[in-house]
Amino acid sequence: MKDLRRYLVLKYVQYLVLSSSNPISTFLGLLGSLYTLIILQSAKVSSKSTAVLISSLAKVDILVSMSIVLEVVAWIFGVGISSTVFMPALLQNLLTANAHISCLLLSCVAFEAYLITFFPIESRHLRTVRNARLTSRIIWILVTAECTLFQMDDLLKASSMSASTCSPCLSLFHVSSMAAALLRSLSYLLGILLRILNVYIYYKIFFSMSN
Questions:
Q1: Are the C-beta atoms of 14 and 21 separated by less than 8 Å?
Q2: Sequence-distant (≥ 6) Cβ neighbours of residue 75 within 8 angstroms
Q3: Residue 190, Cβ neighbours under 10 Å: how many?
Q4: Can you give the three-state secondary structure of 1-65, one letter per residue?
Q5: Which pTM value belongs to this model?
Q6: CA distance 106 to 100
Q7: For the chain, which residues make up each domain, given as ranges?
Q8: 84 in helix, strand or coil?
Q9: Which GO molecular-function terms appear in the entry (predicted)?
């Protein structure tokens, strides 16, 4: 459990404290996720909702690994990443999906810790393995849809540069661009709210335990 707590602290620093990712935090995050997945396979770790959420959090780093592999493959085979629109957009959206899913899962872990601390009996029916798996699945679906829209918007922007103003795809481009811009703004605001919420939750828990 101490190792899992250290892993959560690492992820909180990586996604909710640092303003942007860097190679050191990304590398440590990948190592921590691999080690956590190995720990969770142990029979000593009970299958509870928190373990399910942490397992999902560790698996999210697969997206980071995918982006690294794609970039290495493009470099080996001489594919200019900056010369095409699809590849840089895909790499960016994979990292965006990783960050958004991780922030949401970390907030779910914090909320569960809040329930365990202040409402242990009343919230028992909510803190189930089934609900944790369902929550993780919903988060994955929503963020995947979000980044799919971002990818479509990037491709439509590139195609609209060479298309004429009478192109039938122009209206689709405007709708997609407005939806993507609105979603990016909402994601930014949600990220700020999640940071505030996590700080508040752990502030309450810390002073409750100290008292």
A1: yes
A2: 81
A3: 14
A4: CHHHHHHHHHHHHHHHHCCCCCHHHHHHHHHHHHHHHHHHCCCCCCCCHHHHHHHHHHHCCHHHH
A5: 0.88
A6: 10
A7: 1-209
A8: coil
A9: G protein-coupled receptor activity
Rounded to an integer, the average pLDDT of 67-82 is 73
Tokens of 137: 């699945």
Instruction: Please tell me the distance from the alpha carbon of residue 210 to that of residue 174, in angstroms, as a whole number.
Output: 54
Contacts 24+ apart (CB under 8 A), 142-146: 143/97, 143/100, 143/101, 143/104, 144/97, 146/97, 146/100, 146/183, 146/187
| 173 phi/psi in degrees, rounded to 5 | -65, -45
DSSP one-letter string for 146-183: HHHHHHHHHHHHHHHHHS-TT-THHHHHHHHHHHHHHH
The pLDDT, as a whole number, for residue 44 is: 73
DSSP string, 120-155: TTTTTTTS-HHHHHHHHHHHHHHHHHHHHHHHHHHH
110-141 b/e (C-beta count within 10 Å ≥ 16 → b): bbbbbbeeeeeeeeeeebeeeebeebbeebbe
pLDDT at 82: 47
Q: Name which of 29-33, 35-39, 88-92 the model is least confident about.
A: 88-92
CB-based contacts of 74, cutoff 8 Å, min separation 6: 80, 81, 87
DSSP designation for 78? T
